[in-house]
Design brief:
This is Zinc ribbon domain-containing protein YjdM. The protein is mostly beta strands and 118 residues long. Helix content is 3%, strand content 30%. Strands 1-2-3 form a 3-stranded antiparallel β-sheet, with no helix packed on it. The chain has a 3-stranded antiparallel β-sheet with strand order 7-6-11, with no helix packed on it. Strands 8-9-10 form a 3-stranded antiparallel β-sheet, with no helix packed on it.
């Protein structure tokens, strides 16, 4: 089965392959997200994540929790106003699209609808 995969945009190698949602070039090591149509705008394929008030979030941003959250296994949840630094945007489960570490709780995922950009 021969697939028509696009050549590498960096070195034009024809030996590209798919790895999950990425395209990879084994010759130069370049990785990229393929666009829907050849020559399409790469910004269209990029996902936009907005916080509770509509600000666009990016990796590395600091956010503030806007409402109290219950945490399983913890007697006290996360209080409103808790600041979270250095978030990472991910394709999470059930709308949890922020991966972060919260002091006192550790690593967890949050929904962008319960935070605002700091």
């Amino acid at each position: 089965m021969i697939e028509n995969l696009p050549p590498c945009p960096k070195c034009s190698s024809e030996y590209t392959y798919e790895m999950n949602a990425l395209m990879v070039c084994p010759e130069c090591g370049h990785e990229w997200v393929p666009t829907e149509a050849a020559g399409g705008d790469p910004a269209v394929a990029e996902r936009v994540v907005k916080d509770a008030v509509g600000n666009v979030l990016q990796d590395g941003d600091s956010v503030v929790v806007v409402k109290a959250l219950k945490v399983k296994g913890s007697p006290s949840g996360i209080k409103a106003g808790t600041k979270v630094r250095g978030i990472r945007l991910v394709d999470g489960v059930d709308g949890h699209d922020i991966d972060c570490k919260i002091e006192g709780f550790g690593a967890m995922q949050l929904k962008s609808s319960v935070v605002r950009k700091a």
